Amino acid sequence: MNLQEKKLIETEALGFNYPDGVNALDGINIHIKKGEFVGILGANGSGKTTLLRLLNGLLKPTKGKVYLEQKDVKAINRDTLFSKVCTCFQNPDHQLFSPTVGLDIAFGPANLGLPKDVVRKRVEDALLDVGMSEYFNRTINSLSYGQKKRICLAGVLVMRPEVILLDEPTSSLDPMGVNAIMHLLKDLNKQKGVTMVMSTHSIDLVPIFIDRVIVLHKGRIISEGSPQEVFSDSKKLNDAQLRLPRIGELFDILKKEDGLNMDNLPLTVGEARQELKSLLSL
Hints:
This protein is an alpha/beta fold and 282 residues long. Helices cover 39% and strands 21% of the residues. Strand 10 and strand 11 form a beta hairpin. It starts with 6 loop residues before the first strand and ends with a helix. The relative contact order is 0.14. The model has no long low-confidence stretch (mean pLDDT 94).
């Protein structure tokens, strides 16, 4: 089997109820292949964060199963699971707790009992991966919010994970910070083969960076496919209280109100450019 076709994570009729009786997820069947960059979309309360917490073992399913490399996660040692499936939380301050950058990133591999020289090398490599090699001795409190996000990412990369789960990684970042972190994530995905699963409200980023989209609504999957497939179904988007990417909105208006004829709705600047070139050549 081609590595790119290998199912890394699967869920089977996955469901979760919170103690107060809220049914957060029900009947979730997904598969995530090695090397994919998957986006999870949905309105607030749709179950995005709950799903991520089930995938990494922070929550236990009320019903159904989660598999990692075809093995039920219940049968996987907790340390092994947490080193293979790592999470970056939405707020970096919930993840950083050591006084300095180097100590914080070293926490995970040190707790695995790795030799000090191996831990040091892993930390240096992780900082290099996120473009912050010179920050080893910096205090956490001296970092900007965007820098903290990168250090959190280094803190999971140091574990050499198979999968990184990202809960709203662009939340509270300025436009430059959003662009930087998304390009970094995509580079890690493509160059190092790290599988990424990202929950997000940032619709405009999806067609640029995401390979496959899963749309949640009231705890159920209502749409799944490539960005083009998902954003082509306006009814399901409306049901999920989602919108088209801005460029898609513009061309959708041109199609409906001005009779612009096109096979596929452009969703990115590159796609819009190609569509306009085709129209101008007619």
